[in-house]
Design brief:
Layout lengths: L13 H8 L6 E2 L15 E6 L3 H18 L2 E6 L3 H11 L6 E2 L5 H9 L12 H7 L19 E2 L2 E2 L2 E7 L2 E5 L11 H6 L7 E6 L10 H14 L2 H8 L8 H13 L8 H7 L14 E8 L4 H7 L11 E4 L12 E11 L4 H10 L2 H10 L3 E2 L9 H12 L2 E3 L8 H16 L4 H18 L1
Parallel strand pairs: 2-3, 9-10, 12-14
Antiparallel strand pairs: 1-3, 4-12, 5-6, 7-12, 7-13, 8-10, 8-11
Length: 450
C-alpha cells in the first residue's frame, strides 16, 4: 500500500518510562488546586491529566502560560503515570473523570469508550477543516476508501484523539566529523559502506537493554525493515496476529535485522549490544577513534548525545545529524515511516475544556512546544530552530504512511515474546527458525485470549 495514510501511535509502556517519565505511578498535582474531577461545567477552571514529567512537563507549562494569561482560565494540571487505567476504572464506576487527558490508543478500548460516550468528538468543538488541513495527514486521515481508523482515533467517521505532538523513528544518526560521505539511498548501499574508510571500527552501534522492557530498540529496528519490505496492510495484519512469524516475509525481516547486529557489522558484538542501555548506544559515535558510523534511533536520541558528552558541547546539524531510513528495495513502500504521537481527548464538555482544546490545536500553541525542543508538533506549518527537528519534520511531511511500532500494540504476552526473540536471535542467529516457531505458538494463544 504505497498511497493512503495509515496509523501512527504508541502505548504508554515501559519504554516511555525509560525515556524519562520517571518511576512514580502515584498522582502528583503539578499546580495549585489540582483535582481529579471536573467539578461541574466550569468556564473558569479545567482539569488536565498528563503523563509528562521533567522537560516535557516544563514545555507543557510553557504552552499553557499564554492560555491562562489571556483567558483567565485556571488549568489544574496533574501528572498521572497511570491515567489510562484510572480513567477506565472511572468510566466503569461512573465516577468523575478529568476534563482533558490522553485518549486511549488501544483500538478496542477506544471503541468501547466511544460507545459509552466517555469521549467527546473533536467535531463538536473544533473547526475540522482547519484541524485536518493543518495537521500531518497520517494523523487525521483514514486509509483511502475507509471512514474509520481507530489507531488514530477515528470511530464512526468522527475524531476522538486530538494530535498535538509527534516523533519519527528509524533514523540513522552519525557524527558529522566522522562520516563525511553521502547518505545511502538503499539498505544495500548502507551495508556496503566500509567503516574503515572513515576510521571507524564498525558500521553500526546498537544497544537493546532497557530493564523489563529490554528488546524494544530492536523491535524498532526490525519494524522499520518489515514495513518497508512489505505494504502497510501486510504490516498491520502482522501486528493484529493475522500473519504468522514463520511467514517468509517476517523471516526475511529477521534475517535482514541480523545483518545489522552481526559480529562483522555491530560495535562490541552481541554481548555489548545486549548488555548496554539504549541511552548509551550512541556513545561510540563520539569516541576517538569512532566505534561505529551509525546508530538507528528516533528523534529523541540527541538528548542522550549531549547528556553523555557535555564537554564536547555537541550541536545538532554541526556535530551530528541523521538520514532517513533507506529503501528496502520496494519503491512502493518507501513512504512507510515509523513514529508515534501524543494526543489529548476531552472527557467533560465544559466551556473551559473546549477553549483549552481549541487552543492546543493552534499553531501558536504547538510552536511553543517546537521552540522548547525535543519534539515535533502535529501541525505541518511549524518552524524549527533545531536543524535535526527541521529535517525530521520534512520526513514526517513526506511520509505516505506513518506506521506503529509493532510490539506496542501486540497483546502483552506477544509483545514480551517478540522483544525477547530479538534478544535471542541477536545472541544466537542460528536459533532463528526455532524462535519463529515458538512465536507462532505464542501468537496463537495470545490473540485467542486477548
Amino acid at each position: 500500500m504505497g498511497g493512503g495514510n495509515s496509523m501512527l501511535f504508541a502505548k504508554l509502556n515501559p519504554r516511555a518510562l525509560a525515556l524519562g517519565l520517571g518511576t512514580t505511578f502515584l498522582l502528583a498535582a503539578c499546580s495549585l488546586g489540582g483535582s481529579s474531577g471536573n467539578g461541574g461545567a466550569s468556564s473558569t477552571d479545567v482539569t488536565v491529566w498528563t503523563a509528562w514529567g521533567g522537560a516535557e512537563l516544563k514545555a507543557y507549562r510553557d504552552v499553557l502560560a499564554p492560555f491562562e494569561a489571556s483567558t483567565g482560565i485556571k488549568v489544574h494540571l496533574t501528572t498521572n503515570r497511570d491515567s489510562n487505567n484510572q480513567i477506565a476504572n472511572g468510566i466503569a464506576a461512573g465516577t468523575d473523570l478529568p476534563d482533558i487527558a490522553p485518549g486511549p490508543t488501544d483500538p478496542v478500548q477506544l471503541s468501547s469508550w466511544v460507545s459509552k460516550k466517555a469521549l467527546k468528538p473533536l467535531e463538536s468543538f473544533l473547526d475540522m477543516s482547519a484541524y485536518t488541513g493543518g495537521t500531518y495527514p497520517a494523523l487525521t486521515t483514514p486509509p483511502a476508501g475507509q471512514t474509520d481508523d481507530p489507531y488514530i482515533g477515528i470511530v464512526g467517521g468522527k475524531h476522538y484523539l486530538m494530535m498535538i505532538k509527534t516523533q519519527v523513528k528509524g533514523l540513522f544518526w552519525y557524527n558529522k566529523k566522522v562520516f563525511t560521505g553521502t547518505a545511502p539511498k538503499t539498505f544495500d548501499e548502507l551495508l556496503a559502506i566500509n567503516p574503515a574508510q572513515y576510521n571507524a571500527q564498525k558500521l553500526f552501534c546498537a544497544a537493546f537493554e532497557s530493564g523489563t522492557a529490554s528488546g524494544w530498540p530492536a523491535s524498532d529496528q526490525i519494524d522499520n525493515i518489515i514495513m518497508r519490505q512489505n505494504d502497510a496492510t501486510f504490516y498491520t495484519n502482522w501486528i493484529q496476529g493475522k500473519v504468522k512469524f514463520t511467514d517468509p516475509q517476517i523471516k526475511l525481516g529477521y534475517q535482514t535485522f541480523l545483518k545489522e547486529v552481526s559480529p562483522a557489522n555491530v560495535y562490541g558484538g552481541s554481548n555489548t549490544v545486549l548488555s548496554t542501555n539504549f541511552g548509551k548506544a550512541g556513545d561510540p559515535l563520539f569516541k576517538t577513534p569512532a566505534g561505529c558510523l551509525f546508530l538507528e534511533q528516533a528523534t529523541f536520541i540527541p538528548s542522550f548525545f549531549t547528556q553523555d558528552f557535555p564537554s564536547l558541547n555537541l550541536k545538532a546539524g554541526t556535530d551530528f545529524d541523521f538520514f532517513a531510513h533507506p529503501s528496502m528495495g520496494v519503491a512502493a513502500d518507501d513512504g512507510n515511516v515509523n513514529g508515534f504521537y501524543d494526543n489529548f481527548s476531552m472527557y467533560n464538555d465544559t466551556p473551559a475544556a473546549r477553549k483549552l482544546m481549541q487552543y492546543m490545536a493552534t499553531a501558536p500553541a504547538q510552536q511553543i512546544w517546537a521552540n522548547d525542543g525535543g519534539t515535533l508538533g502535529a501541525i505541518k506549518s511549524l518552524t524549527y530552530n533545531d536543524p535535526v527537528y527541521k529535517a525530521a519534520a520534512d520526513v514526517a511531511a513526506s511520509a505516505k504512511n506513518l506506521l506503529v511500532t509493532a510490539g506496542d500494540f501486540m497483546p502483552s504476552d506477544m509483545q514480551a515474546a517478540f522483544w525477547k526473540s530479538l534478544l535471542d536471535v541477536t545472541n544466537n542467529p542460528g536459533s532463528l527458525d526455532s524462535v519463529l516457531a515458538h512465536l507462532d505458538a505464542v501468537q496463537k494463544a495470545a490473540y485467542t485470549t486477548s
